[in-house]
Amino acid sequence: MKMGFFKDLFGGSDERKRGDEYATEGLIWETGGAMGTGDKDIGRAISLYRKSCSMGSAHGCFYLAQSYKYGHGVPESKIDYNKYIEKSKELDPEVYRRLSSQLRDMD
User: What CATH number is attached to the domain comprising 43?
Assistant: First the structure.
């Protein structure tokens, strides 16, 4: 049995964890931090979301999808929204459900 099997089974791959960290960093750049008082750079946030998604982070794919849905930092695109939201669902259905629920609660 390959060692990667256990790593993926018990906590995910190192690359996916790094991808999640990039997604979190992207949120900080998009919002200016927890209190919204820091510097904002949507271009940097989008770049980090893309990198995160390419590393297998459902969070990064979800945030990138939302950017396309609302045209925030990228041209609004239903096609790209669907592409990245589906990728988020495939990568981690539980993360997708949790983030979707949080968005609904904010409305």
Answer: 1.25.40.10
DSSP string, 47-59: HHHHHHHHTT-HH
User: In total, how many domains does the chain have?
Assistant: 1
pTM: 0.83
Tokens coding 32: 């200016």
Query: pLDDT digits over 51-63, tens only?
Result: 999 999 999 999 9
| Residues 52-85: b if buried by 16+ CB within 10 A, e if exposed | bbebbbbbbbbbbbbbbbeeebbeeeeebbebbb
The string of DSSP letters for 59-86 reads HHHHHHHHHHHHTSSS---HHHHHHHHH
Q: Domain of 46?
A: 10-106
Residue 57 lies in a domain: yes
